[in-house]
Amino acid sequence: MRVVFMGNPQFALPTLTALLSSHHDVIGIVSNPPKPMGRGRKLKSTAIGQFAKENDLNLLESSTLKSDELHNQLTELNPDVFVVVAFQILPKSLINLPKFGALNLHASLLPKYRGAGPIQWSLMNGDKISGITVFQIMPSVDTGDILLQEKMDIFPNDNMLTLGTRLCTIGANLVVNALDGIEAGSLQPITQNNNHATKAPKITKEMTIINWSWAAVKIHNWVRGLSPYPGMSTTLKGKRMRIFNTRVVDEGVIIGDGIVFKADPEEIFVNTGEHLLAFSEIQLEGKKRMSVSNFIKGNNIQKGDKLGE
Q: Which domains are present in the chain?
Protein backbone atom coordinates (compact mmCIF):
# COMPACT_ATOMS: atom_id res chain seq x y z
CA MET A 1 0.00 0.00 0.00
CA ARG A 2 1.07 3.58 -0.68
CA VAL A 3 1.39 5.15 2.76
CA VAL A 4 1.79 8.75 3.89
CA PHE A 5 3.01 8.85 7.48
CA MET A 6 2.17 11.77 9.79
CA GLY A 7 3.83 12.30 13.16
CA ASN A 8 6.01 14.52 15.32
CA PRO A 9 7.68 13.10 18.47
CA GLN A 10 9.95 10.19 19.30
CA PHE A 11 6.87 8.11 20.20
CA ALA A 12 5.99 7.98 16.49
CA LEU A 13 9.41 6.83 15.30
CA PRO A 14 9.05 3.05 15.89
CA THR A 15 5.93 2.99 13.70
CA LEU A 16 7.69 4.85 10.90
CA THR A 17 10.70 2.53 11.00
CA ALA A 18 8.41 -0.53 11.06
CA LEU A 19 6.58 0.76 7.98
CA LEU A 20 9.86 1.39 6.18
CA SER A 21 10.88 -2.23 6.91
CA SER A 22 7.54 -3.62 5.70
CA HIS A 23 6.43 -4.31 2.14
CA HIS A 24 4.32 -1.16 2.21
CA ASP A 25 5.61 1.91 0.37
CA VAL A 26 6.10 5.04 2.48
CA ILE A 27 5.72 7.71 -0.21
CA GLY A 28 5.67 10.76 2.03
CA ILE A 29 6.08 11.99 5.59
CA VAL A 30 4.25 14.96 7.10
CA SER A 31 5.59 16.64 10.24
CA ASN A 32 5.54 20.06 11.87
CA PRO A 33 8.16 22.54 10.63
CA PRO A 34 11.23 23.32 12.79
CA LYS A 35 10.72 25.74 15.67
CA PRO A 36 13.06 27.72 17.95
CA MET A 37 14.22 25.64 20.93
CA GLY A 38 16.55 26.05 23.90
CA ARG A 39 18.44 29.07 25.16
CA GLY A 40 19.94 29.78 21.76
CA ARG A 41 16.49 29.61 20.11
CA LYS A 42 17.95 27.55 17.29
CA LEU A 43 15.50 25.97 14.87
CA LYS A 44 14.97 22.31 15.71
CA SER A 45 13.03 19.75 13.70
CA THR A 46 10.63 17.26 15.23
CA ALA A 47 12.01 13.77 15.87
CA ILE A 48 10.16 12.53 12.77
CA GLY A 49 11.29 15.49 10.68
CA GLN A 50 14.92 14.99 11.68
CA PHE A 51 14.74 11.26 10.91
CA ALA A 52 13.24 11.96 7.49
CA LYS A 53 15.98 14.45 6.65
CA GLU A 54 18.75 12.14 7.81
CA ASN A 55 17.37 9.29 5.70
CA ASP A 56 16.55 11.37 2.61
CA LEU A 57 12.83 10.64 2.81
CA ASN A 58 10.11 12.69 1.14
CA LEU A 59 9.32 15.15 3.95
CA LEU A 60 6.45 17.66 3.84
CA GLU A 61 6.55 20.28 6.60
CA SER A 62 3.51 22.47 7.00
CA SER A 63 2.40 24.83 9.76
CA THR A 64 -1.24 24.15 8.94
CA LEU A 65 -3.01 21.05 7.68
CA LYS A 66 -5.62 23.19 5.95
CA SER A 67 -3.24 24.75 3.42
CA ASP A 68 -4.04 24.30 -0.27
CA GLU A 69 -0.36 23.62 -0.96
CA LEU A 70 -0.24 20.63 1.39
CA HIS A 71 -3.54 19.30 0.09
CA ASN A 72 -2.26 19.48 -3.48
CA GLN A 73 1.04 17.83 -2.55
CA LEU A 74 -0.75 14.94 -0.86
CA THR A 75 -3.21 14.56 -3.73
CA GLU A 76 -0.34 14.28 -6.21
CA LEU A 77 1.20 11.48 -4.13
CA ASN A 78 -1.99 9.42 -4.65
CA PRO A 79 -1.83 7.65 -1.26
CA ASP A 80 -3.85 4.57 -0.34
CA VAL A 81 -3.83 5.45 3.35
CA PHE A 82 -2.57 7.93 5.94
CA VAL A 83 -0.97 6.58 9.11
CA VAL A 84 -1.08 9.13 11.94
CA VAL A 85 0.87 8.80 15.21
CA ALA A 86 1.13 11.57 17.83
CA PHE A 87 0.29 14.34 15.39
CA GLN A 88 -2.39 16.96 14.84
CA ILE A 89 -6.14 16.57 14.37
CA LEU A 90 -6.77 15.98 10.67
CA PRO A 91 -9.35 18.14 8.89
CA LYS A 92 -12.11 16.24 7.09
CA SER A 93 -10.64 17.25 3.72
CA LEU A 94 -7.54 15.19 4.47
CA ILE A 95 -9.30 12.27 6.17
CA ASN A 96 -11.24 11.59 2.99
CA LEU A 97 -8.33 12.03 0.60
CA PRO A 98 -6.76 8.50 0.59
CA LYS A 99 -8.55 5.44 -0.75
CA PHE A 100 -8.66 3.79 2.69
CA GLY A 101 -8.83 6.97 4.76
CA ALA A 102 -6.56 7.57 7.74
CA LEU A 103 -5.48 5.30 10.60
CA ASN A 104 -4.35 6.46 14.03
CA LEU A 105 -2.29 4.72 16.70
CA HIS A 106 -3.65 5.64 20.13
CA ALA A 107 -1.96 4.69 23.42
CA SER A 108 -5.01 3.31 25.23
CA LEU A 109 -7.68 0.66 24.93
CA LEU A 110 -10.28 2.84 23.26
CA PRO A 111 -12.89 4.02 24.03
CA LYS A 112 -11.03 4.48 27.33
CA TYR A 113 -8.85 7.58 27.55
CA ARG A 114 -9.81 9.53 24.48
CA GLY A 115 -7.68 12.64 24.22
CA ALA A 116 -4.15 14.00 24.33
CA GLY A 117 -2.79 12.26 27.45
CA PRO A 118 -3.78 8.58 27.57
CA ILE A 119 -0.44 7.32 28.92
CA GLN A 120 -0.29 9.99 31.59
CA TRP A 121 -3.85 9.46 32.81
CA SER A 122 -3.60 5.67 32.94
CA LEU A 123 -0.65 6.04 35.33
CA MET A 124 -2.14 8.96 37.25
CA ASN A 125 -5.26 6.88 37.88
CA GLY A 126 -3.22 3.92 39.10
CA ASP A 127 -4.36 1.53 36.36
CA LYS A 128 -2.84 -1.95 36.20
CA ILE A 129 -3.60 -2.51 32.50
CA SER A 130 -2.95 -0.31 29.48
CA GLY A 131 -2.89 -1.00 25.77
CA ILE A 132 -2.68 0.28 22.24
CA THR A 133 -5.34 0.76 19.57
CA VAL A 134 -5.26 1.20 15.81
CA PHE A 135 -8.48 2.84 14.66
CA GLN A 136 -10.02 4.53 11.63
CA ILE A 137 -9.93 8.30 11.98
CA MET A 138 -13.26 10.12 11.93
CA PRO A 139 -13.88 13.90 12.24
CA SER A 140 -14.79 13.49 15.92
CA VAL A 141 -11.55 12.88 17.85
CA ASP A 142 -10.70 9.27 18.84
CA THR A 143 -14.17 7.94 18.01
CA GLY A 144 -13.57 5.90 14.84
CA ASP A 145 -13.94 2.15 14.40
CA ILE A 146 -11.35 -0.02 16.13
CA LEU A 147 -9.25 -2.11 13.76
CA LEU A 148 -6.81 -3.78 16.17
CA GLN A 149 -6.05 -3.63 19.89
CA GLU A 150 -3.50 -5.14 22.23
CA LYS A 151 -3.41 -5.11 26.04
CA MET A 152 -0.31 -4.55 28.15
CA ASP A 153 0.44 -4.79 31.87
CA ILE A 154 1.51 -1.64 33.67
CA PHE A 155 4.47 -2.38 35.95
CA PRO A 156 4.60 -0.89 39.48
CA ASN A 157 7.65 1.21 38.66
CA ASP A 158 6.48 2.36 35.23
CA ASN A 159 6.46 6.05 34.40
CA MET A 160 5.31 7.89 31.29
CA LEU A 161 8.60 7.20 29.49
CA THR A 162 8.92 3.47 30.22
CA LEU A 163 5.27 2.67 29.56
CA GLY A 164 5.20 4.87 26.46
CA THR A 165 8.30 3.18 25.07
CA ARG A 166 6.73 -0.27 25.36
CA LEU A 167 3.42 0.90 23.93
CA CYS A 168 4.94 2.55 20.87
CA THR A 169 7.08 -0.52 20.18
CA ILE A 170 4.10 -2.87 20.24
CA GLY A 171 1.99 -0.32 18.41
CA ALA A 172 4.43 -0.17 15.50
CA ASN A 173 3.84 -3.83 14.66
CA LEU A 174 0.11 -3.41 15.21
CA VAL A 175 -0.03 -0.67 12.56
CA VAL A 176 1.75 -2.87 10.01
CA ASN A 177 -0.66 -5.72 10.83
CA ALA A 178 -3.61 -3.36 10.35
CA LEU A 179 -2.36 -2.31 6.93
CA ASP A 180 -1.83 -5.96 5.99
CA GLY A 181 -5.40 -6.68 7.09
CA ILE A 182 -6.85 -3.79 5.11
CA GLU A 183 -4.92 -4.91 2.04
CA ALA A 184 -6.19 -8.49 2.43
CA GLY A 185 -9.74 -7.42 3.33
CA SER A 186 -9.58 -9.51 6.49
CA LEU A 187 -10.18 -6.89 9.19
CA GLN A 188 -13.53 -6.61 10.94
CA PRO A 189 -13.85 -3.07 12.35
CA ILE A 190 -15.51 -2.70 15.76
CA THR A 191 -17.68 0.31 16.54
CA GLN A 192 -16.67 2.05 19.78
CA ASN A 193 -19.19 2.04 22.61
CA ASN A 194 -19.52 5.70 23.54
CA ASN A 195 -21.11 4.75 26.85
CA HIS A 196 -17.75 3.33 27.97
CA ALA A 197 -15.71 6.33 26.83
CA THR A 198 -13.47 8.22 29.26
CA LYS A 199 -11.35 11.31 28.65
CA ALA A 200 -7.60 11.95 28.87
CA PRO A 201 -7.33 15.73 28.55
CA LYS A 202 -4.13 17.63 27.95
CA ILE A 203 -1.98 18.18 31.04
CA THR A 204 -2.02 21.77 32.25
CA LYS A 205 0.58 23.58 34.34
CA GLU A 206 -1.81 23.72 37.28
CA MET A 207 -2.01 19.92 37.34
CA THR A 208 1.74 19.62 37.96
CA ILE A 209 1.63 21.29 41.40
CA ILE A 210 1.64 18.75 44.24
CA ASN A 211 -1.29 18.89 46.64
CA TRP A 212 0.17 17.46 49.84
CA SER A 213 -3.31 16.88 51.28
CA TRP A 214 -3.72 14.05 48.77
CA ALA A 215 -2.94 10.50 49.85
CA ALA A 216 0.66 9.48 49.19
CA VAL A 217 -0.43 6.84 46.68
CA LYS A 218 -2.23 9.44 44.56
CA ILE A 219 0.76 11.79 44.55
CA HIS A 220 3.01 8.83 43.70
CA ASN A 221 0.83 7.91 40.73
CA TRP A 222 0.76 11.47 39.44
CA VAL A 223 4.55 11.68 39.71
CA ARG A 224 4.80 8.45 37.68
CA GLY A 225 2.36 9.74 35.09
CA LEU A 226 4.20 13.02 34.58
CA SER A 227 7.79 11.74 34.73
CA PRO A 228 10.20 12.60 33.31
CA TYR A 229 8.33 15.55 31.81
CA PRO A 230 6.78 17.91 32.80
CA GLY A 231 7.21 16.45 36.31
CA MET A 232 5.29 17.11 39.51
CA SER A 233 6.60 20.03 41.52
CA THR A 234 6.41 21.72 44.89
CA THR A 235 8.34 24.50 46.59
CA LEU A 236 11.07 24.37 49.20
CA LYS A 237 11.96 27.63 50.94
CA GLY A 238 10.50 29.61 48.08
CA LYS A 239 12.21 27.67 45.29
CA ARG A 240 10.41 25.45 42.77
CA MET A 241 11.41 21.81 43.07
CA ARG A 242 10.38 18.83 40.94
CA ILE A 243 10.40 15.41 42.57
CA PHE A 244 11.02 12.01 40.98
CA ASN A 245 11.36 8.34 41.95
CA THR A 246 8.75 8.34 44.68
CA ARG A 247 7.43 5.54 46.83
CA VAL A 248 4.65 5.21 49.38
CA VAL A 249 5.69 4.49 52.96
CA ASP A 250 2.85 2.91 54.93
CA GLU A 251 3.28 5.02 58.03
CA GLY A 252 3.05 8.61 59.12
CA VAL A 253 2.07 10.92 61.88
CA ILE A 254 -0.31 13.85 61.91
CA ILE A 255 2.20 16.68 61.70
CA GLY A 256 0.67 18.56 58.78
CA ASP A 257 0.48 17.94 55.06
CA GLY A 258 3.73 18.70 53.26
CA ILE A 259 5.83 18.64 56.44
CA VAL A 260 9.18 16.85 56.15
CA PHE A 261 9.04 13.83 58.45
CA LYS A 262 12.63 12.74 57.88
CA ALA A 263 15.56 13.53 55.59
CA ASP A 264 18.13 10.78 55.41
CA PRO A 265 21.15 10.54 53.06
CA GLU A 266 19.16 8.75 50.33
CA GLU A 267 15.52 9.86 50.60
CA ILE A 268 13.31 12.63 51.88
CA PHE A 269 10.08 11.57 53.62
CA VAL A 270 7.11 13.93 53.56
CA ASN A 271 3.78 13.70 55.35
CA THR A 272 0.67 13.63 53.12
CA GLY A 273 -3.06 13.30 53.64
CA GLU A 274 -2.45 9.59 54.13
CA HIS A 275 0.93 7.93 54.80
CA LEU A 276 4.37 9.22 53.89
CA LEU A 277 5.78 9.89 50.44
CA ALA A 278 9.49 9.25 49.99
CA PHE A 279 11.48 10.51 47.02
CA SER A 280 15.10 9.99 45.99
CA GLU A 281 15.56 12.45 43.10
CA ILE A 282 14.81 16.16 42.77
CA GLN A 283 15.36 19.05 40.40
CA LEU A 284 15.54 22.60 41.69
CA GLU A 285 14.55 25.37 39.30
CA GLY A 286 17.45 26.29 37.05
CA LYS A 287 19.41 23.19 38.09
CA LYS A 288 19.94 19.69 36.71
CA ARG A 289 18.12 16.67 38.07
CA MET A 290 20.07 15.13 40.95
CA SER A 291 19.87 12.48 43.65
CA VAL A 292 18.71 13.45 47.12
CA SER A 293 22.11 12.37 48.44
CA ASN A 294 23.82 15.01 46.28
CA PHE A 295 21.14 17.58 47.05
CA ILE A 296 21.54 17.21 50.82
CA LYS A 297 25.30 17.83 50.60
CA GLY A 298 24.71 21.41 49.55
CA ASN A 299 21.27 22.19 50.99
CA ASN A 300 19.88 22.26 54.48
CA ILE A 301 16.61 20.33 54.76
CA GLN A 302 15.40 18.82 57.99
CA LYS A 303 12.44 17.46 59.86
CA GLY A 304 9.69 20.02 60.22
CA ASP A 305 10.43 21.93 57.02
CA LYS A 306 7.34 22.74 55.01
CA LEU A 307 6.98 21.94 51.30
CA GLY A 308 4.53 23.80 49.12
CA GLU A 309 4.86 27.28 50.56
A: 2-196 (3.40.50.170), 205-298 (3.10.25.10)
